[in-house]
Structure formats: structure tokens, C-alpha cells
């Protein structure tokens, strides 16, 4: 919300992609009341399944003529393992596969930007503490500690997926893609039904930064000259931070990319660099 508010203040034509339209409308009114400018539109977008992500992409493709900056900020934390309608583990889908699928579907609009499109993904340094198991991406053999392992794995997959996409797009010389860790932010991502999550939330509110402080790290990447962005980079506190060696291993990155494409129903990645990717009708 704070990144959207800052963009509105700077005069951007703001389009909000929201899973919950009622909450989106409330956020839009919040932005209008503080900036005097209303978002141009709110589009229903849900990235929790392959079909939903495709539907959201189609709505955007039908309504917009271009995208200058795409900011991916969808994220979720689940204390218990669950799968979506496609049979895939829901943390991985919501935090990684869904946003990546949406991004790929919207590349045609990013290509139409007269200023040069860019992709900014909100990530987490939790990615530095895990490596996705290619033999058990859905964590059927063990979900780990109260959802934290699943969250870290999903964020590691997100960073790798976007970095590989950035490499593919850089072959065209266009559309840089970066990931940014804004810090440990006080949000409502933690569930509150169990005492240990309530304790974590209490601790977080005392030591985490505010959403406005987090936006101060994210927003500059929306406006920095394209030539100054390190595509594929992981930004933290304004600088690029090197990923763990395991996440940079070429064979691992290639395997994770190809499995991700298969799960998203996108086939070979050659389609990303040629004709615009068609969104299948559902």
C-alpha cells in the first residue's frame, strides 16, 4: 500500500491488482484520501492457482495498453501444509509460481512501455536460509517447523525464478527484473490462532520496521534509471546482495526453472522471447 501511495504522489497511473476487491477498494480510498488522487482502476487478480493467475492476467491484458512498472507483492504464510486446486503446495504457488506466471503473461504489456518496462519483486532474506528440494517441491515428505521452512523455500524459489527470467529477458536487452528485501516489516502475515504466532506478532511489532519505512527501500527501484538497475539482482538496503552459492548453481536453477514452467503450463521458455505468450481460455 505504501509503495502504491508513493507512486500515486509521484503522478503514476496506478492500477491495483487485488485478490479481494473490497479490500482493494478500501486501499484505493486510503490512497485517495492522502494523495488526492485515486488509482485508475482495480483489477481482480488471484495468484493462488494456475487458472486464477491466467484469469487475472487476462483481465489486465484486456484493460491496459502498456505497463511501465510491474510490482509483485503478493505473499502468504501458512502454518500447516495445504495444496491448491492444482495439487501444488500453496505457499510455493502463492509466493513464487503464481506471481512468476502472472509476470510472464504480462511481458507483452511491459514490452510496450515507451520508457522501458521493469519488474520489481518484493522478496525476503528468508530465501538465504533454504534451498528448494527438487524431488519434493510440495513438501509432502515433511512440512517443517510451523510453516517457516515452507515460507523460506518459497522465497528462495521466488528469487531464483525471477533471476532466471531476468537472464532470459536480458538476451533481448530489455525489461530488467529485480527482487528487493525491504527489511523485517510489521504486517499481518502471521496467523493469530495459536499462541506462538501471537507471540511472534507481538515481538515483531516492537522490533520490525513500518510499512512506510519498507516502502523507502522499494520505491526507489521503481524510478531509478534502467541503466542503473542490476537485472536479476537481489537488493537489500539499497545495494545488491549476493545470493548463497546453492541458489546460484546453474544446474539447480535450470531444473527449478523448467519445473516451474511446467507447473505454470507455459512449456518451453523460448516463447518468452518470441511472440507474446497467449493466455489460454478457461
Outline the fold blueprint:
Elements: H1 2-9, E1 15-18, H2 21-35, E2 41-44, H3 50-63, E3 69-72, H4 90-105, H5 107-111, E4 118-122, H6 148-170, E5 177-181, H7 195-207, H8 211-218, H9 220-223, E6 234-236, E7 239-240, H10 245-248, H11 250-264
Parallel strand pairs: 1-2, 3-4, 4-5, 5-6
Antiparallel strand pairs: 6-7
Helix pairs in contact: 3-4, 4-6, 6-11
Task: Tag the structure with descriptive keywords.
single chain, 282 residues, alpha/beta, five-stranded mixed β-sheet, 11 helices, globular
Describe it for me?
44% of the residues lie in helices and 10% in strands. The protein contains eleven helices and seven strands. The protein is globular, with a radius of gyration of 18 Å. It has helices at 2-9, 21-35, 50-63, 90-105, 107-111, 148-170, 195-207, 211-218, 220-223, 245-248, 250-264, and strands at residues 15-18, 41-44, 69-72, 118-122, 177-181, 234-236, 239-240. The strands form two sheets. The protein has a five-stranded mixed beta sheet with strand order 3-4-5-6-7, covered by helices on one side. It is α/β, with parallel strands linked by helices and 282 residues long. Helix 4 (90-105) runs parallel beside helix 6. The two termini are 31 Å apart.
Amino acid at each position: 500500500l505504501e509503495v502504491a501511495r508513493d507512486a500515486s504522489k509521484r503522478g503514476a497511473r496506478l492500477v491495483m491488482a487485488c485478490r479481494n476487491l473490497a479490500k482493494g477498494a478500501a486501499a484505493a480510498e486510503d490512497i485517495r484520501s492522502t494523495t488526492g488522487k485515486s488509482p485508475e482502476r482495480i483489477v481482480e487478480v488471484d495468484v493462488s492457482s494456475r487458472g486464477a493467475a491466467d484469469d487475472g492476467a487476462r483481465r489486465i491484458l484486456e484493460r491496459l495498453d502498456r505497463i511501465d512498472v510491474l510490482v509483485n507483492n503478493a505473499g502468504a504464510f501458512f502454518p500447516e501444509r495445504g495444496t491448491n486446486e492444482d495439487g501444488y503446495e500453496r505457499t510455493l504457488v502463492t509466493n513464487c509460481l503464481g506471481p512468476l506466471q502472472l509476470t510472464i503473461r504480462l511481458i507483452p504489456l511491459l514490452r510496450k512501455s515507451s520508457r522501458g518496462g521493469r519488474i520489481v519483486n518484493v522478496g525476503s532474506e528468508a530465501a538465504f536460509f533454504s534451498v528448494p528440494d527438487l524431488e519434493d517441491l510440495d513438501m509432502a515428505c515433511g512440512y517443517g517447523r510451523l510453516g517457516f521452512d515452507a515460507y523460506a523455500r518459497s522465497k528462495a524459489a521466488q528469487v531464483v525464478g525471477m533471476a532466471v527470467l531476468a537472464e532470459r529477458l536480458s538476451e533481448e536487452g530489455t525489461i530488467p527484473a529485480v527482487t528487493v528485501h525491504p527489511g523485517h516489516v510489521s504486517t499481518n502475515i502471521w496467523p493469530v490462532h495459536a499462541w506462538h504466532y501471537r507471540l511472534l506478532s507481538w515481538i515483531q511489532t516492537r522490533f520490525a520496521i513500518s510499512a512506510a519505512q519498507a516502502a523507502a527501500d522499494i520505491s526507489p527501484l521503481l524510478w531509478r534509471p534502467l541503466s542503473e538497475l542490476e537485472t536479476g539482482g537481489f537488493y537489500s538496503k539499497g545495494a545488491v546482495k549476493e545470493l548463497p552459492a546453492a541458489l546460484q548453481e546453474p544446474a539447480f536453477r535450470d531444473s527449478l526453472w523448467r519445473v516451474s514452467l511446467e507447473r505454470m503450463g507455459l512449456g518451453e521458455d523460448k516463447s518468452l522471447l518470441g511472440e507474446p505468450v497467449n493466455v489460454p481460455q478457461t
